[in-house]
Fold this sequence. Notes:
The complex is a heterodimer of chains A (349) and B (261). Chain A is 76% helix and 5% strand. With 349 residues, chain A is mainly α. In chain A, helix 4 crosses helix 11 and helix 12 packs across helix 13. In chain A, a hairpin with a 3-residue loop joins strand 2 and strand 3. Chain A starts with a helix and ends with a helix. A two-stranded antiparallel sheet of chain A has the order 1-4. A two-stranded antiparallel sheet of chain A has the order 2-3. Chain A has 14 helices and six strands. Chain B is α/β, with parallel strands linked by helices. Chain B has two domains: 178 residues, Rossmann fold (3-Layer(aba) Sandwich); 71 residues, no CATH class.
Amino acid sequence: MVAVNDQSKAAGQTRSWQSRSSGFLRTYGLQIGIFCVLLVIWGIFVVGAPETFLSSNIYAAYMSTIPFFAVIALPLTMIVIAGEMDLSFPSIMGVGMVAFVNVWALTHSVLLALIASLVMGFLVGLLNGVIVVRLGIPSLVATLGTQFFWKGFVLVITDAGGFSLVPVKGTVLRQALVGRAAGYLPAQMIWAVVVAVLVWVFLNRHKFGAHVYLIGDNVESARLMGVNVDRTRMLNFAILGTAAAFGGVLSSLEQSYFWVSLGDGYLLKTMASVFLGGTSVFGGVGTVFGTFIGSLIIGAIEAGIVAIGKVEILGLVIKLSGFWTQLIYGLIIVISVSMQNVLSRRLSR
Amino acid sequence: MDYILEMKNISKTFGEVQALRQVDFAVSRGEVVGLLGDNGAGKSTLIKIVTGYHRPDPDGSEMYFNGRKIENLSVSEARELGIETVYQERALADLQTLWRNIFMGRELTTRLGFLDVRKMRHETEKLMVGSMGFTSSAVASDSVVKTFSGGEKQGVAIVRALHFDAELIILDEPTMGLSLSETKKLLEFVRGVKEARKSCIFIDHNVFHVYSVADRVVVLDRGAVAGEFMTKDITLEQLMDKMYRVAQTGHLNGNGSEQTG
């Protein structure tokens, strides 16, 4: 009798171990998948252009430019998980910088200017949230509108003229934001990691993130169980606005100039990072790690293609140039997202 | 009478539609009240007012919980008062893990709102072995609810209502989609609620189920109370007969004379 008990217990243990391992794959499968995609692309680059990709310069360049949209893609992940979309963040980058340069001109304090731009981003993001939640307008439509409005606002206020940030150059805060740690590592990369950690903690270890997942998964259930849906949604947009302003500051400080065109070209890259990272457009599913890797892939492709220069397929020499970037972006996005879809269906069975 | 819940003169209008008309409804401590009525009678609207999901029309509606007057009740306030609900639509988030579903809307957190994930997982595992009786090895606290069977999902919704030590448990069509043995278990669970001196509102289309567990039956029809009976004073046949007549005529005895209940 005892022996039988022991046996069944042992069987139970192995079974629970098995279910745990399949649970591991189920939970992390997509993240492992996207990481493999990154490795494959990197491998192709190293083979295709060893002199570029085996030197450290290219990585310093990547780490200086990828953070500008990575710090926005990370909180955008929370918006998409909640089942929403935001198209206005490229414009918010500019709005934040308008606040930055005005406060800078007034006070000559980089810190106050930075705070002003973040507060501005928060408020503009919050306004998106209010329009979506209180007026019940779908976020895609609402932010399509606010995207135009704030872009126009920037153009009108600045009279379409830029603003030099060269006087900011010597300041400590600029060094802390976009300087080079140890003369090599771009500080903005450290900030991107900080933002990633913050977003991860809020998404996975805080009530706010728990509610973001629940709302994106089944908003009616969330309401029935007492989740404060409206507040979570509005705060979500406000967080993205703040992050967009921050991305705008990083990018402008790096270039020591505020271009009114700031934000142009960010929309699709940033969104692509989120979706490449395995976040579902239907909401309820998505990871910070995925988006982070997604931004690395999106950020690496252009320079990689140019560096490779030409490829030979079956004796046919194809000369690669910057013109190829979009075509290859498209290929990688469509293939990866299709793979993820197949993979997640397999894993959830 | 020692009422846990007392509702007076409750009306609810959605635009042009009056879902509830001056409904009086009360539940005593340790009482199981069956709520019967056809589709559209206003059962779900009534309980969604109790759970804070809907607000009653402002003029004249009054609500008391444990003798205290309740105004502008929200869902989370209702849950804090000790009102837990197993909704007809189950109110689960399919793509999330079991432990996130159990603690949905009532996450265990530090004062700053950070989740105590370890404790929530641990509690969920305890519940799975104890109350849910999950024997399937495929189910763990990290399992995604989407993979559960209908009965298992209902089990999750019920265990969730139980876990928070509710004073008043509302079951809205809980037997829907359950197997025979699962239904039997559910009815036993309702009797257990009563033994623990907790109260229960039980909504079901199946008159047999309601009759077998309820102390009192309230019949709603077209947004108003058509009548109420103690189950000990009435046979199942009589109840069925009355239900049928209500559906036909809107009155319990066919002539409308016994509407006072």
